[in-house]
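This part of the workshop introduces the protein records we will be handling. An example says more than a description, so a record of this kind follows.
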Amino acid sequence: MKKFLKIIGIIAGTLVLIVVALVFFAKNRSQAALRKTYAVTVRPVAIPTDAVAIEHGRHIAETRGCIDCHGRDYAGARVIEDGAMGRLYGSNLTRGKGSSTAGFKDEDWVRAIRHGVGADGRGLFVMPSLEYSHFTDEDLGALIAFMKTVPAVDRERVPTAYGPISQILLTTAPYKMIAAEVIDHAHLAPPLSIAKAPTADYGRYLAAGCTGCHGSNFSGGKIEIGPPDWPLAANLTPHPEGRLPKWSEQDFMTAIRTAKRPDGTILNPVMPRGFAGMDDVELKALWAFFRTLPPVAQGVR
């Protein structure tokens, strides 16, 4: 019996050592991923100053996810606070106390938004620049122009804490958490312009902002950068088992604007509410694009 207990103790001790070693390894590798720098040559973007362009920039900021992480005052909001994923608050983009952009030049804004790289050369954690890298120069310039007009707010950023799942992802698949890891910085060539119209082409351009949760083929499924209890992202393809084939264009537009499906159920809060600010042309374009997708079962990416 003593021999058996001794063997059990050795096994248990070995397992503890393995776990401790893995935790140490993940912590060190994740920190290395966060410290990694990216050499980016920023292509200049014209920053307009007229009121129309600045208003267009405001619309982009409110409908493409900026307010969901940085808040409606752009001084930072809670993104994730979860034991498994950790704690993440958006940075203060205003010129107030605690600002992360107070000393930004125009090229720093471009580097951060389009390339996902901070002024210090490090990749920005969970900054969705892979989706933003496709912005036309006109849209990016307008967005930066608006951000430079945002009133100053004093708010220090809540320190980021990396939970075990974040550390594992940073160790095994850093590209899922740091967009700079997968953006082809040297050959990045977003469209110079695109006509705003209720067409599938314009919808494809807008839908790039949906890929972070719904995947590159829009089939939805597990949201890889979210906590384990986040719901599966909806399938946006016309697969017969999905919701969209049963909806009309008006159903889709109403669901986005009211966060309520035609059957009365509420969209999960994980779905960014900022999309509700999209105008009719944008929502019709998205609907037209989603209708052109090949049907794929949910989560088959």
In short: The radius of gyration is 22 Å.
